[in-house]
UniProtKB/TrEMBL annotation:
It is found in: Cell outer membrane. Keywords: Cell outer membrane, Ion transport, Membrane, Receptor, Signal, TonB box, Transmembrane, Transmembrane beta strand, Transport. It comes from Lysobacter brunescens. Pfam families: Plug (PF07715), TonB_dep_Rec_b-barrel (PF00593). The keyword Membrane applies. Residues 310-758 form the TonB-dependent receptor-like beta-barrel domain. Residues 22-54 are annotated as: Disordered. This is TonB-dependent receptor. PROSITE patterns: TONB_DEPENDENT_REC_3. It is a multi-pass membrane protein.
Length: 783
């Protein structure tokens, strides 16, 4: 699929050849809350007076009526969006993150249906190992897990069900002073539904995957059921939604041994090991499949709102998410009698290998997380508006049990460990004031305070399945706080020029850090730092349909609690962590040409980012012995171009096409601790990304969709020493196709059939993604 980016680029360009220059103002669908804003943010005088009128000024769009997003749409910079109705019609959206599947330059590392702990969001200049370089919100509540940065600190996607989404919008880059430095990649804003009158919804879906990899050949399925009900009684409205998912995931991890580690000696002769090459092209054996996830997730959300007036609302949100997890495993090794072998000294091709007791093991988890959000918001679009909001996210129960004994003993019990993260979580409070002195001027002020607590303790137990916690094995934890103050001014000073200028001041503190083993506790001194982050964006309108937008912003991403304090103690000395890590400092800029067509729009964006002191796990080769931990990488430079567009009614009524192509050259420029990485590609940032989505609705009852997604060659290591991406722990290119057909025979009933990865591509991002997955949905809507 080497030519896939070129193919998609041509597909994007061809419809523009037949497009006219005169562009009517797009229609506003107030029922869907659709701003139709894709890269067309509102002008500064964008009111919210309920008239539901749309106008175009300076190549941008102003939408009046209830504000559909919390993103600062007045800033003339890149934004993309999709409504919940559009996503339901065109995307096999099993989980909330699936709605982002076709956004330009975005990728979510979702490995299986219901992936709750590794679904990291990647952006233009950040890979799927950089979870703290983006922000995800739902109704103003922070879902990003900023306790750490990596695969296990993913946004809490499970607190949003696809059926409750009104729309999703994405702000690309750190160009709004209202957000902290974690916005360097993107800000994702989910807006969920609130009723205007009585409505009820129910959905039942099933997903099926036939999976073949190495010696694993099996079928995995999942079933999802959801229901919601809402109504409005005068000034008061309420919404209740529940969702349950039972999912079987394919294997995530594969036990392995380098062939070169074999020795002479005695052991159990076995068969079944799979010979292959690892990402570094070293010969190895794969022994079995582990982390075969069975997850039962329950999600419930209650939303209440009271409107004191047409533009003043008090709202409360409560969400709870429960998850029972069992990670199964299978061994491919068999002794001479055909019995499974899980551990011990084994003979493979005449050489002896030691298989650890936990190499092919089990695990179970019991999780319950809750969130609360309270907001008072005035949204008049007139002289003075404001938002006062507080939210809290709690790990009410978060316990993971693992055996330390080998199977088959572990099947019924035996010694193990319990990792307890109860009490971990974060809370946020912010105040945001919007002042409009005149129709051409918007001034914003705000204060934000976020606090994070990480508390994890691992204890031994005599029975890993049911036993009580015993002696401490290890512990780590700490707290961090980020307080920010910002001011931002958007001003249209002529018919052609609009500008936004902002400044953010942050004060960051880390304290109460600790690291412990069975006998020793190490405590770390507190730290405090401050940072200034200026922002600027300008737009110049050549014509009412064509504008040039330029944005620049500085982002300071402070180390997370986990990056600072998660490590280990060996002989009383701290290893594998550095409590003195520097903050990441990024300067990001972009230049966009946006052109509105009579049947869509086109955008070309050139972007550049330079990050100093990027935070990565690497080996410091300048010290003896070498140390591998989270370290600062001197400088990473990313330069690229993004082409995006959408077209409607391309000679066929009901046909719509959207797509994008992104090229990114992301290079490590300085890294004195690991010189072998200098001049190499940043991990998990491919040169090419592309997607294309074609949707055809021949009638109000039928809609057909075909999509294609492409990602080019990439690496998982800083020194790019893993050229074999098509292997476990590798990161491979991929080209996959998706289909969806939806039929609504009546106003209330709907049926959808779809397939993701139609071409059944086996591809990797350390773990394998899903292979061909079929989706069937039945839903009922009453409005």
């Amino acid at each position: 699929m080497r030519h896939a980016p070129l193919f998609l680029a041509l597909a994007l360009a061809l419809p523009a050849l037949a497009a006219g220059a005169d562009t009517p103002a797009p229609a506003d669908d107030t029922n869907q809350n659709d701003t139709n804003q894709n890269d067309a943010p509102a002008t500064p005088d964008g009111g919210e007076d309920g008239d539901a009128q749309t106008t175009r000024t300076l190549g941008t769009i102003t939408v009046t009526g209830v504000r559909p997003t919390s993103l600062p749409t007045q800033i003339p910079t890149t934004m993309e969006g999709i409504t919940g109705d559009e996503a339901e019609a065109t995307i096999n959206a099993i989980d909330a993150e699936d709605v982002l599947k076709y956004f330009p330059s975005l990728l979510v590392r979702k490995r299986y249906v219901g992936d709750f702990d590794h679904a990291v969001l990647a952006t233009r200049a950040s890979g799927t190992g950089n979870s703290a370089r983006s922000l995800v919100y739902a109704d103003g509540i922070l879902l990003s897990n900023l306790l750490g940065n990596g695969a296990s600190f993913t946004p809490r996607w499970g607190l949003v069900a696809p059926e409750e989404i009104a729309r999703v919008d994405v702000l690309y880059g750190p160009f709004s002073a209202a957000y902290p430095g974690n916005s360097v990649g993107a800000v994702v804003d989910y807006v969920t539904r609130m009723p205007q009158s009585f409505e009820a919804h129910a959905k039942l879906s099933h997903h099926h995957q036939d999976f073949e990899l190495y010696r694993t050949r099996d079928s995995y399925g999942s079933t999802q059921a959801s229901a919601s009900i809402g109504d409005r009684w005068g000034a008061f409205s309420a919404w209740l939604a529940v969702n349950r998912l039972d999912s079987e995931g394919h294997p995530m991890v594969f036990a392995n041994l380098l062939q070169s580690s074999g020795t002479t000696g005695s052991g159990t002769p076995v068969t079944g090991a799979v010979a292959g090459r690892n990402p570094r092209n070293q010969p190895w054996y794969l022994l079995g499949a582990t982390s075969i996830v069975e997850t039962e997730q329950e999600h419930a959300k209650l939303k209440l709102a009271y409107d004191f007036s047409d533009d003043l609302r008090l709202s409360y949100t409560f969400g709870t998410w429960r998850n029972d997890v069992f990670r199964d495993s299978e061994t491919w090794l068999r002794d001479a009698a055909g019995n499974p072998v899980y551990s011990g000294n084994v003979l493979i091709d005449g050489r002896r290998y030691a298989v650890p007791a936990t190499a092919i093991s089990l695990q179970q988890a019991d999780l319950e997380h809750r969130m609360h959000g309270l907001a008072l918001k005035r949204s008049s679009g007139k002289t003075l508006d404001f938002t006062l909001a507080v939210s809290r996210y709690d790990y009410v129960r978060d316990r993971v049990r693992s055996p330390t004994v080998a199977r088959p003993i572990a099947d019924t019990g035996g010694a193990g460990r319990i990792a307890d993260s109860d009490g971990t979580g974060w809370r946020s409070a912010n105040a945001h004031l919007v002042w409009r002195p005149n129709d051409a001027h918007v001034v914003e002020f705000g204060v934000q305070d976020d606090r994070f607590t990480l508390d994890t303790e691992v204890r031994d137990t005599s029975d890993w399945q049911r036993g009580a916690p015993g002696a401490r094995f290890s512990a780590f934890g700490g707290k961090a706080a980020l307080t920010g103050v910002f001011a931002q001014d958007t001003w249209r000073w002529s018919e052609r020029w609009t500008g936004t200028f902002g400044l953010r001041f942050d004060r960051w503190r880390a304290h109460d850090g600790l690291l412990a083993n069975a006998t020793t506790v190490a405590r770390f001194a507190g730290r405090s730092e401050t940072a200034l982050s200026p922002k600027a964006a300008l737009a110049f309108a050549f014509t009412p349909d064509t504008s040039l937008q330029a944005s620049v912003g500085r982002a300071v991403r402070f180390p997370t609690v986990s990056e600072l304090y998660q490590g280990s103690l060996v002989a009383g000395s701290v290893v594998n962590n550095d409590p003195n890590l520097k903050a990441e400092r990024s300067t990001t800029s972009e230049l966009s040409l946006v052109h509105a067509l009579d049947n869509g729009r086109l955008r070309a964006t050139v972007f550049h980012e330079r990050t100093r002191d990027a935070l990565y796990s690497q080996t410091n080769v300048l010290v003896t012995p070498n140390i591998t931990n989270i370290q600062n990488v001197g400088a990473i430079r990313t330069t690229g171009i993004e082409l995006a567009g959408e077209w409607r009614a391309l000679g066929i009524e009901g046909l719509e096409l959207t797509g994008s192509v992104t090229f990114a050259d992301s290079i490590i420029r300085e890294n004195p601790n690991f010189p072998a990485s200098e001049g190499k590609w940043q991990p998990r940032v491919p040169r090419w990304r592309a997607n294309l989505l074609a949707s055809y609705a021949p009638s109000a009852q039928w809609q057909f969709t075909a999509g294609a997604r492409y990602s080019g060659k990439q690496f998982n290591t800083l020194d790019n020493s893993d050229p074999n991406g098509d292997a476990y722990t590798g990161t491979s290119p991929f080209f996959v196709m998706d289909l969806r057909a939806r039929w609504r025979p009546t106003e209330h009933w709907g049926l959808a059939l779809g397939v993701d990865n139609l071409n059944d591509r086996t591809y990797w991002n350390f773990h394998p993604y899903t292979q061909r997955t079929w989706v069937a949905e039945l839903r009922y809507d009453w409005r």
